[in-house]
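Predict the 3D structure for this chain.
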Amino acid sequence: MTSEIAVAHLAKRFGTTAAVSEVTFAVEPGEIFGLVGPDGAGKSTILRMLAGVMRPDRGTIAVDGVDVVKSPEQVKGHVSYMPQRFGLYEDLTVDENIRFYADLFGVDAATREARARPLLDASDMSRFRKRLAGQLSGGMKQKLGLTCSLVHAPKVLLLDEPTTGVDPLSRRDFWRILFKLRESGVTLVIATAYLDEAERCNRLALLHHGSLRYCDTPAALKRRMSGMLVVVSSPAPRAVRDRLQRLPGLGNVVMVGDGVHVVADSEGRIADMRRALTAAEIPFSAVERTEPSVEDVFMALLKEPA
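Done. Predicted structure below.
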């Protein structure tokens, strides 16, 4: 199978800072490919280079058979790029914004309506078509931005943290649309700050300081994590963390909600943790093994040597 996106030895510097360093990956047709990493990891820079709006210092990029480095203008008919702050015109209505972006790509009125209607229906936006974009909620603006991004029927959709600051209900609606797009054959590359969303991707690229540390399915990445994950439920998670950090045989110790997640090197460490907490008179209701999330895996893998 020919990759929809092929990136090799991609590099970009801003002054003395290496934003992206020797990144290589491929995205298959119809895949949801996630870029995951902390702020400054290089996610947005990679998306801009894929979209042809930023030139790399080194490396090659092919999107739908187009050499993006040599022909950045040519790729624009094949991709749609939705940055963190999509350029909606707040003094235009929903319909007028869609019409504006359709006109940019030479999409006629009948085709525009045929493409926009199902997207607006799927996002529950049809009843707001005459509303000014400036009067929409944050989640509704993102769904309108997605509709505008798709009006020219691109084969590849690039999304830069599209659900940041969006309410949970709108996030769910947004992902429901993304899954439908994948089923229709659209290839998606999404940078996300929500690691629970990363679980929904077919494959993930874990980025750190501009370098690609790991690239695999969420399930395969979980199998790479050495040791086992233990969750400690306690009304005093800070005290639990501070005590367990001093015990041998434990790796990453992180507070998560009303508990603490611990990477242990063996099953026997569970009894050690219970004894230590009991001796320190720190209250807890459970110390038990659990399946790791992508967030647990990400934190553990980043502590491994590069």
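The chain has a mean pLDDT of 90.
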